[in-house]
Amino acid sequence: MSSGYLLVDTPNRVTPQGGLPRRAGGKLSGTIIVHTSEGPWTNGVDALTSFLLTRSDYGSYHRACDWADIAVYFPWEWEAWQDSETNVWAVGIAAACRAADWRIMPADIREGYYRNMAVMAADFVKYMDEQYGITVPLKRITGAQARARVPGFAAHGDSGIHRTDPGADFDWAYFFKCTAQLLNAVSPETPVVKPKPKEWDEMATKTEVEAAAKSGALAALDQAAIPLYGRFKGKTSVNRTLGWAAEHAERNHANSAATHAKLDALLELVAADRNASKEEIAEMLDNSIQATLGDYRLNLERVEGEPA
Predict the structure, then answer these.
(1) d(CA 87, CA 78)
(2) 168: Cβ–Cβ under 8 A, 6 or more apart, which residues?
(3) Which H/E stretch holds residue 56?
(4) pLDDT per position as a tens digit, 184-239
(5) Contact 66/45 with Cβ under 8 angstroms?
(6) Nearest residue to 192 via CA among 203, 200, 183, 184
(7) Fewest CB within 10 angstroms: 30, 175, 270, 306, which?
(8) What is the architecture, at CATH level 2, of domain 6-184?
């Protein structure tokens, strides 16, 4: 039966990359080491996983991610060979990119990395609280503090083994902000306000709903599609994603399906508000939005890129 952990279910047969129990009776201290894998971001986490399954030397993580996926390698309780200075009591998470990539990757790609890094971090923070009653603060600690088993987040580059990751361009403040949003289930800047029930004469008219559908939510979808479309079309400063798109058509299809599922869900919400069918609401779509989403779909589904 599968455990759900990639390097547990399919271990590296040449050089095992982790073990349980931890050596020397080691216990989790709440220390987490942040890495970059130092492979090009265009290769993604799949390439990193393939490397970890076959590498002949030691080096692994508990979790790793790219902008779209998270690879779960070991349970937090396992010892992974992620930082020789702290392996016995710490855990490691990694972005499948190079430290130098943060400044050159497209903005939407970088956003995806930070969001997935936050998912991994939040999972560990919650685990330590639930299993050990240890609070892991969302703050960066020094290498010396990491070696002293202080709870918190340390850069692999702060260890004593001549590393530089996750690099000077890694945005710690934004990483912690994204993590806090997940832990709080809402942005700290956006308090939850219970909506006041509307009286019948405050409710939207048919004309207002139609206008909102065109100029509001659907226009937002239009804007959301543009950077994703541009990413594969070569409209970004980094065109290497075209090679990735050619090699990962299956993932592109999945992204396309997810986008259209969101559009379908939006149509259902508007239809429910209007007491109409999805087909009737779909007819309200502006032609330019339809064209944008159509181009986005075709572009995601193609398996070969065009020159920029």
Answers:
(1) 10
(2) 99
(3) none
(4) 974 433 433 444 444 444 444 555 545 555 455 444 444 444 333 333 333 222 33
(5) yes
(6) 184
(7) 306
(8) 3-Layer(aba) Sandwich (3.40)
Distance CA 151, CA 129 (A): 11
Question: Quick one: which of 232, 234, 221, 218 has its CA closest to 286?
Answer: 218
| Distance, CA of 113 to CA of 70 (rounded, Å) | 10
pLDDT band at 17; cut points 50, 70, 90: confident
CA-nearest of 61, 60, 54, 44 to 96 is 44
Q: Quick check: helix, strand or coil at residue 33?
A: strand
Break the chain into its structural domains and give their ranges. Answer: 6-184, 200-301
CA distances from 144 to 28, 202, 271 (A): 17, 60, 58
Q: Determine contact, residues 108/232, Cβ cutoff 8 Å.
A: no
* Residue corresponding to tokens 């990962």: 248
Find where tokens 């930070």 sit. Answer: 114
